[in-house]
Design brief:
221 residues, 6-stranded mixed sheet, globular, 3-stranded antiparallel sheet, 6 helices, alpha+beta
Length: 221
């Protein structure tokens, strides 16, 4: 499975998506450059590739490409009536965008398809995280990390909730995952293609409302 096919597999059918290699990124648009400040070249390539992928995602759902400035929490500001997500890792940037309707928040994440280093696992994994995928624990830990990143990106623009890694419990299955925050349960998907892990998760208005009701500083465990 190639990367674009894998993105299509993990995202809802109504979502657009884009892919851009970091070594082949066009320049950011003028309205976006100010956000880079004195960023190093590597960060500039990540930013540029992410914005290029996001504009491809917008085109897929019939929206004209536009500048995507940086907003609260460094999240991209999507056009009115749209929601989306950008990620970069493993030498590539990916993005998704969807016309807001039944879906009001969507997150996508990309990571190298390699075991999560042992010294990082205590920070990411907690007692409620479960690996039921059949994968070795190192690679499963990487996918669980990615799933938590997707969850954060899906909810943050609407809730402003700074979810910590311990605030979400992930149960990893062979081709998907279940995320739990307090009493809320959310299904997501993951795939591996071209040396990277992809994960995605999306939220409806009722789920966003449930998350908004949580204490913004202390999420019940």
């Amino acid at each position: 499975m190639n990367l674009r096919a894998a993105l299509q597999a993990v995202l809802p059918s109504e979502a657009g998506y884009g892919v851009c290699r970091l070594d082949n990124a066009p320049e950011p648009w003028p309205e976006e450059i100010a956000a880079l400040g004195r960023a190093v070249d590597a960060r500039r390539r990540e930013f540029a590739a992410g914005r290029a992928a996001a504009r491809d995602a917008l085109r897929m759902v019939g929206h004209a490409p536009v500048a995507l400035p940086v907003g609260h929490g460094r999240a991209p500001v999507w056009p009115k009536g749209m929601c989306g997500s950008i990620s970069h890792g493993g030498g590539v940037a990916v993005a998704t965008g969807v016309v807001a309707g039944e879906i009001v928040g969507i997150g996508v994440d990309v990571e190298p398809a390699a075991p999560l280093p042992c010294d990082l696992r205590p920070e990411i994994l907690h007692g409620r995280d479960l690996n039921e995928s059949g994968l070795d624990d190192g690679l499963a830990a990487r996918i669980i990390f990615s799933a938590k990143e997707s969850l954060f990106k899906a909810q943050f623009p609407s809730t402003g909730l700074w979810l910590d890694f311990g605030d979400a419990a992930i149960t990893l299955h062979a081709s998907g995952f279940a995320a739990r925050v307090s009493d809320l349960r959310i299904a997501g998907r993951w795939a591996i293609a071209e040396g990277v892990v992809l994960s995605a998760l999306w939220l409806g208005a009722e789920q966003i409302g449930q998350l908004r009701s949580l204490d913004p500083d202390i999420v019940p465990r």
